TrEMBL record:
Naturally occurring in which organism (per UniProt): Terrihabitans rhizophilus
InterPro entries: RsmH, SAM-dep_MeTrfase_MraW_recog, SAM-dependent_MTases_sf
Residues annotated for S-adenosyl-L-methionine binding in this entry: 43-45, 61, 88, 109, 116
Chief localization: cytoplasm
Keywords tagged on the record: Cytoplasm, Methyltransferase, rRNA processing, S-adenosyl-L-methionine, Transferase
Gene3D superfamilies assigned to the protein according to its UniProt record, in alphabetical order: Putative methyltransferase TM0872, insert domain, Vaccinia Virus protein VP39
E.C. no: 2.1.1.199
Protein name per Swiss-Prot or TrEMBL: Ribosomal RNA small subunit methyltransferase H
GO molecular function per UniProt: methyltransferase activity
Enzyme class: transferase
GO biological process: methylation
Source species, domain of life: Bacteria
Family per similarity comment: Belongs to the methyltransferase superfamily. RsmH family.
Function comment: Specifically methylates the N4 position of cytidine in position 1402 (C1402) of 16S rRNA.
Length: 343
């Protein structure tokens, strides 16, 4: 695990944290508290926590460039901030490795950062021509590997399930036809394929949006990471500790909503198709059931338009541990899982 120490060179932040004030208010930082910023990015949430209380923050990011870019804020924090390279789904093991025995809050800003989107060579965006990569941590198969090597039906299933693209079959068919002429290696090439299939409609999202989203989620296992982070937060949070999650599309938000609803349920699960089951003791109490950005924030930061915040407070009930991903809305794509494991 790489940890950023004061004195290392870093770059200036370019990412605007969405719903920052609302998320940090939900955490309610206190002096002496320990907080985890599980998606550090440019440090917007970490900076706000440090400004609000004389607390300590552990920032986590799987992108080595984000870790290196944290140097200035680490120096300014005077020993109250540590930034480590890692996945937020592993936050329990990170906390254990650091010897932290109390966590008072966890904040997650799920999805891709503006720094990644705005860097052409990272291959996240169809707005720039760059290599079809999309890997946050630079390890494992790239988006190009999936596009060029998955069978047509498996590629269609991926685009449909993770991108919610209605024309998934047509896009996959066009991709397979194109790759017969040689590997698809650039973002511009894939964007042109999507546009030829779906067409451009004024005032609508770009026709490649959902396909790019699906590939990015698949390459980085974003939904699996999110669910593992929620399970881990339940394990590490002290009683009274708080969890705040900002999501950006329906797949992410469905997982967060389902997890918090299931973990905070106090009534039995009653179904006419099965015997009633008594609810386990809640491990969370809702604080913010759903919050969205105001008009001013959306005007200032277009990325905020689809954002949603949910937050809850940890009770003193024992953590329940991990559960079946499908029960929380994580699509299970066996061909994708086999490909990623094989690669």
């Amino acid at each position: 695990m790489m940890a950023l120490q004061p004195g290392q060179d870093g770059s200036k932040p370019r990412h605007i944290s969405v719903l920052r004030d609302e998320a940090v208010d939900a955490l309610a930082p206190v002096d002496g508290g320990v907080y985890i910023d599980g998606t550090f990015g440019a440090g917007g949430y970490s900076r706000a926590i440090l400004d609000m209380a004389d607390a300590h923050v552990i920032g986590i990011d799987r992108d080595v460039e984000a870790v290196a870019g944290a140097a200035t804020l680490v120096d300014q924090a005077g020993g109250r901030l540590m930034v480590v390279e890692g996945r937020f789904g592993d936050l329990k093991s990170i906390v254990q490795e650091l010897g932290v025995d109390r966590v008072d809050g966890v904040v997650l800003d799920v999805g891709v950062s503006s720094m990644q989107l705005d860097t052409a060579e990272r291959g996240f965006s169809f707005r720039f021509d760059g290599p079809l990569d999309m890997r946050m941590g630079r390890e494992g198969p790239s988006a190009a590997d999936l596009v060029n090597e998955l069978a047509e039906k498996d590629l269609a299933s991926l685009i449909r399930a993770l991108g919610e693209e209605r024309r998934a079959n047509a896009v996959a068919k066009a991709v397979v036809a194109e790759r017969a002429n040689g590997r698809i290696e650039s973002t511009a090439q894939l964007a042109r394929i999507c546009e030829a299939v779906i067409g451009r409609i004024p005032d609508q999202i770009h026709p490649a949006t959902r396909t790019f989203q699906a590939l990015r989620i698949a390459v980085n296992d974003e939904l699996g990471e999110l669910l593992r982070a929620l399970f881990a937060a339940e394990e590490v949070l002290s009683p009274g500790g708080r969890l705040a999650v900002v999501s950006f599309h329906s797949l992410e938000d469905r997982i967060v909503k389902t997890f918090l609803a299931e973990r905070s349920r106090t009534t039995p699960n009653v179904s006419r198709h099965a015997p009633a089951t008594f609810a386990a003791t809640p491990t969370f109490v809702p604080i913010v059931r759903s919050a969205t950005p105001g008009e001013e924030e959306m005007a200032r930061n277009p990325r905020a338009r689809s954002a949603r915040l949910r937050a809850a407070e940890r009770t003193d009930a024992a953590a329940r541990g991990a559960g079946d991903p499908m029960a929380y809305g994580v699509p299970q794509l066996s061909a994708l899982a086999a490909f990623m494991e094989r690669a």
